[in-house]
Amino acid sequence: MSDPRPWRVAVNLLWCVPGEVGGSEEYLERQLLGLAEAAPGAFDVTVYAPRGYGAAHPEIGRRFELVTTRSSGRSRVGRIGAEHTWLARRTRPADLVHHGGGTTPMVGTRPIVLTIHDLQYLRHPEYQHAAKLRYLSWTIPRSVRRAAVVVTPSEWVRSTVIEAFGVEPDDVLVVRHGIEPARAAVPEPAELRARYALGGGPVIVFPAITHPHKGHRFLLEVMADAWRDPELRLVLLGGRGAADELVEATIDRLDLGDRVIRTGRVPAGDRDGLLSMASALVFPSEYEGFGAPAIEAMALGTPVICADHPALEEVVGDAGLVLPRTVEAWSGALDEVARRRAELVTAGLERAGHFTIAASGAELAAAYRRALERAR
């Protein structure tokens, strides 16, 4: 029996400070756009986000009602307060609330769908500030208990959630990342080489905020010890994270200033252009919930070299080089990619085809329906 009206869904993105939360920002945007494509008319979605979100993600504002706070969202205390007051009042009419940042407030409308991007705080507590670790250790288990359905970006995270919190497996669903077709105009390689001072040699790209677990320092060691071609340029895309000073110090210590190009965040067209012209995307992270840059690179026809973390292995499969995080294991990777380039490009394009925004949206719709069924 069909419902007489679309289900009213409130999506809490108050945690999502544009440009400062890494891949989870694109993950939620793409799955919501996929929801509109995969389940048109089934859900009446209102998105609640911090000031500036609409400017950073205009397509969300065009597809859904977007309500923003006056705050930028950078204060965790302020965000938590807003969730318990401002958000709680505004989401009362909703049939379902989707909290996209891994935690829920202690009050508010139920049923709840909760997105948990990863459980890094359990696997690598050494990378968390003490206060944040205490907060996550308290609030995430409580949030999981409040949720009707937990969604994760990968089977790896799903299994860790079930193991850590004893959740019924049927109530933890994977909603994969969805990759959009490239929309922005891509500059010519010669233009990008001039703009970012890349020279005329080979280029490899690592797109990641300089968080400790991402593996920037390991990659710099590989550059210094094994990838010694003086014309090779490593392009580090992404903002500055908690390990930024250590990354800068490592570049200086290893005398890599001429071969490592730090661009920060770049326009989408430049990012796609840099990936497309690269010999490889390199992704040595020691912990991931998914690893979207690997899929994005494969979709652009760029081979992937990544660490053998379970989430990355799940995403890349045999369509890229998945290697232990040792200099020895990575030393010959660029040569192998050069030998196998045509094979890896073909496999990568096929692999990327499984990660569409429509597939992501369909899985999100299934999670919403599961949560609504549980509430009946």
End-to-end separation: 14 Å
Tally of individual helices? 17
Label the CATH architecture of the largest domain: 3-Layer(aba) Sandwich
What does the overall shape look like? globular
Write out the strand line-up for the largest beta sheet, numbering strands in chain order: 3-2-1-4-5-6-7
Unreliable segments of 5+ consecutive residues: none
Secondary-structure-derived class: alpha/beta
User: What is the CA-atom radius of gyration, in angstroms?
Assistant: 21 Å
Helix content: 40-55%
Number of strands: 13
| Major beta sheet summary | 7 strands, parallel
Q: Please name the CATH topology of the largest domain.
A: Rossmann fold
Q: Could you say how many structural domains there are in total?
A: 2
In CATH, what is the class of the largest domain?
Answer: Alpha Beta
* Oligomeric composition of the shown chains: single chain
Mean of pLDDT = 94
Q: Beta-strand level of the residues, as a percent range?
A: 15-25%
CATH H-level superfamily title of the largest domain: Glycogen Phosphorylase B
Order of secondary-structure elements: EHEHHEHEEHHEHEHEHEHEHEHEHEHHHH
Describe the structure.
With 376 residues, the chain is an alpha/beta fold. The chain has 2 domains: 7-178 and 356-375, 3-Layer(aba) Sandwich (Rossmann fold), CATH 3.40.50; 189-352, Glycogen Phosphorylase B (Rossmann fold, 3-Layer(aba) Sandwich). The protein is built from 17 helices and 13 strands. It has helices spanning 23-38, 53-56, 58-63, 76-90, 120-123, 130-146, 155-165, 189-195, 216-225, 244-253, 268-277, 292-299, 310-316, 327-330, 333-339, 341-352, 357-375, and strands at residues 7-12, 43-49, 65-68, 96-99, 112-115, 149-152, 172-174, 203-207, 233-237, 260-264, 280-283, 304-307, 321-323. The chain has a 7-stranded parallel sheet, with helices on both faces. α13 (310-316) links the parallel β12 (304-307) and β13 (321-323). α9 (216-225) runs parallel beside α10 and α12 (292-299) packs across α16. The radius of gyration is 21 Å and the shape is globular. The two termini are 14 Å apart. The relative contact order is 0.13.
